[in-house]
Amino acid sequence: MIIAFCVEKGGAGKSATSVAVSLEYVLRGYKTLLVDVDPQHSSLDWHRLATANGNPAPKVMAAGEGFEDDLGQLAGQYDRIVIDAPGRYGRIMAGALAISDIFVMPTVPGRYDLWSTLRTSKLAERAAMERPELKVRAMLNKVDRRRSISKEIRPALVGRGIDVLDTELSLLADYDEGTEEGLAPTNLNPTGKAAKQIRSLCDELDELSKELRRAV
Hints:
By secondary structure, the chain is of the alpha/beta class.
């Protein structure tokens, strides 16, 4: 299963989510590859810290344009591949759309983020015309239920025909704390709310993967 976290905007939490999900898959015993194609290479930096501190981590591969060709050859060697993509449209996003099974658009509640997800969704729809098996989903991230926009964003997306994952990731410290030690929510605070959300997200992604296999 290849999962891409990608949306045409920075600050949506793509790297933090990619790291958290890939680590959870490692903890579940899956052979996991985290592909860092974001020029900032935040996932790669996290991996170096995890390794230096002796913490569990997926294998990480830094890549750039054309990465999908190499990844296609590696896909059979891993149970889970997670792609941390940059916040702009270009060849890298096109590559992620060409190779992923599940394309997830992290969306922070806010007007600018909504517009960004709508733009990215249009690109994904075009890719899905050529690859009908591609699963495209928005994912609400950094949700603060005290803000009215956090309650409005899901119906706004659904009303525009965009499928949204049931799992929401809240605005919680556990998504940032521990990063300098190479930790993520499920091994930083295994019983915390953020850890439970990441496990729920992985469960939901696995269910989508099962749908893909049943459709074959």
